Amino acid sequence: MKKMYKISELAEIFEISRQTLIFYHKKGIFVPKEIDKDNGYRYYLKEQMWDLMLILTLKRAGFSLEEIKDLVQNKKMNSNVEFLEKKISEIDIKIENLKNIRKNLEIRIKNFKESNTGENDNIKFEKSKSIYWYSLEMNNPIDEKEMISKYLKLNEIAQKNSIEITEYINILDLKKIKTIDSDDILPILKIGILVPKEKIFKDCKELVVGNSFSITHIDAYVNLYDTYKKLSDYIEKKGYENLDYSIEFLKEVTIPTKNGTGGLLKIMIPVEIDFLR
């Protein structure tokens, strides 16, 4: 067996480019044993093949070049063990994060399929119920930038408290909705997330959703006003009196539609119980 290998031979064995080996040399990660002074050829010992195998394995595992360099150059067994154990812990965290991302993507697929059914015209009556939520006040009810900021903050809070499925809840000013144009932003007073009973944490509050009429909106946000008008007209036609606010439950806030970005949400308008028939 040969004792020394040229750079081209090593590249062929490991099915990598010569440029990769030259780059590793320049970075001090994988240095040839000898360099011919006359022609500049790089030569590697056969024992170095095992070092290169380790380097390529670490690279595929997602180690940075600096981490690989430190590990390869560090000849202390204990420190190498500590380094690799720490890396395994980081990989475990990444795996868990990827699992959560996968789960969220599965939920999004389910929501997309649900939004494709077109079942968004049925108005239903729903009896009063109590839920738990965590909410943030809107300083400006029609500021989209603030809304997005609040949604992002709620996402962080949900993750922090191990809430796997994030369902948003919006409280809207129904009185102001009646006075705005159809293309205006609907005024949101509070933005929150639904909190399962087993996940209740500090600052969660009980939200009593009174006897309500509901409708599901599966369309572009630009058509949300029309959905509200349809539900409000229905309540008025039936002779009920609403409580001047509405509650939105958002399963999916970004759904592509032919009319632009939309959402999958249920709108609930509570009504006075004395008017129920």
Describe this structure as you would to a colleague:
With 277 residues, this protein is α+β, with helices and mostly antiparallel strands. It has three domains: 4-73, Multidrug-efflux Transporter Regulator, Chain: A, Domain 2 (Orthogonal Bundle); 76-116; 123-275, Multidrug-efflux Transporter 1 Regulator Bmrr, Chain A (Alpha-Beta Barrel), CATH 3.20.80. Helix content is 41%, strand content 26%. The chain contains eight helices and eleven strands. It has helices at residues 7-14, 18-26, 48-60, 65-73, 77-115, 144-160, 174-177, 224-237; strands spanning 4-6, 34-35, 42-45, 123-126, 129-137, 168-173, 188-194, 205-209, 212-220, 245-257, 260-270. α1 crosses α2. The longest helix is centred in the middle third of the chain and has 39 residues, at 77-115. The mean pLDDT is 85.
Throw out a few tags for this protein.
single chain, alpha+beta, 8 helices, Multidrug-efflux Transporter Regulator, Chain: A, Domain 2, three-stranded antiparallel sheet
Task: Describe the structure in brief.
By secondary structure, the protein is α+β, with helices and mostly antiparallel strands. It is 41% helix and 26% strand.
